[in-house]
Amino acid sequence: MSPREWTPVCRACGARNPGTWSRCPGCGGVQVLEGPRTVPTPSGAGGLWRFRDALPPVRHEITMGEGGTPLVRCERLAARTEVAQVLVKNETVNPTLSFKDRAMALGVSLARDADTPGVVAASTGNTAVSAAAYAARAGLPCRLYCAAGAAGSAKLRTAQAYGAGVEPVDGDFSSAHAAAAELEAEGWFPLTTTFRNPYLAEAHRTVALELFEQTGGSVPDWVLVPVGAGPLLVGAYEGFRALADAGRIPRVPRMVAVQVDACAPLVDAWRTNAATVTAANPRPTVAGAIADPLRGYEDEGVLTLEAVRESNGLAVSVPDEAVLAAVDDLARHEGLLVEPAGAAPLAALAALAADGTVAPDARVVLLATGHGAKE
Ligand SMILES: [Zn+2]
């Protein structure tokens, strides 16, 4: 397979930009990757690269055994929510305790091939930890930009333990984004896990491919995903769509984007059936990992809205109190310690089952994205 078969294409101006790793160099628009999204024959040992046939090819496959996460059947949660089957895809057991490790394994592998001076991300959370660890594994410098107010958080201190440089920037998350972009202009490889780097969401297709294996080739009715910008939802949706296009499953599951009431720009656009996304004015929330106002890259949220619509899914938000109750329920009834953002799908399921949107005979997968130990 030639690397040329995977090409970033600008959604705004239509330009094809091979050899780029970020937004469109011509107009600044968000790019999507065109490529052969096939259903792979899994090969080799564990980790993301079992599915190498389905991923953009790399010369250096960096791995720490990410992916291959358990699918945990939760009978008590099924009984409490009164739906037939609740399965938790437990992404908290990845090497740095979040789903981001899938994207980072692919990202740092591409960065090694690109002969870049280092990797850079704007992040205060799971991305920062994962980028730092995988950069160390790849032997690449890693620089992380964060808003000054977020410096010193537990997750950033963890990233520093892996040797990453943390650079506080005056202002908010958008200011951190701008600082990261300046380093990109010097050739540093972007690992910010919105849709800024069009390659990274491809890694999340492996979530769907694993679910297909783990459910014996069946397909759940609903897949609930905690969403900031939403590359995990889009990646998983693309994985299911490839399986459906190949005739391996009869249909894609209905994808549910779950946000918190305090910051829900995608849900706002969903409710008004808008074609575009407006940046949110966020309030404080316990679910910081998904509290992304999308300011300055509203167009990236549109990719997630489209995947939700194409799957006949939904976008819903839940209050912080329901999120905290879901954290407790996962821990006390199923033994799963999940960070608040990662528990938001259970809160959403409870609401959707109570109002009849999710039927009693439904089979539901919740993506538990990050471990509670890091909070
Ligand atoms: Zn463009």
UniProtKB/TrEMBL annotation:
What domain of life?
Answer: Bacteria
All residue ranges annotated as the Tryptophan synthase beta chain-like PALP domain in the record: 62-370
**Looking at the keywords, is Lyase present?**
yes
* Biological process annotations from GO: isoleucine biosynthetic process; L-serine catabolic process; L-threonine catabolic process
Q: Which GO terms describe its molecular function?
A: L-serine ammonia-lyase activity; pyridoxal phosphate binding; threonine deaminase activity
A Pfam family of the record is PALP
Which PANTHER family has this protein been placed in?
Answer: L-THREONINE DEHYDRATASE CATABOLIC TDCB, THREONINE DEHYDRATASE, MITOCHONDRIAL-RELATED
Return the SUPFAM superfamilies for the record: Tryptophan synthase beta subunit-like PLP-dependent enzymes (SSF53686)
The upper taxonomy is:
Bacteria, Bacillati, Actinomycetota, Actinomycetes, Pseudonocardiales
Keywords for this protein: Lyase, Pyridoxal phosphate
Q: What is this protein called?
A: Threonine synthase
Name what cofactor the protein needs. Answer: pyridoxal 5'-phosphate
**Keyword Lyase on this protein?**
yes
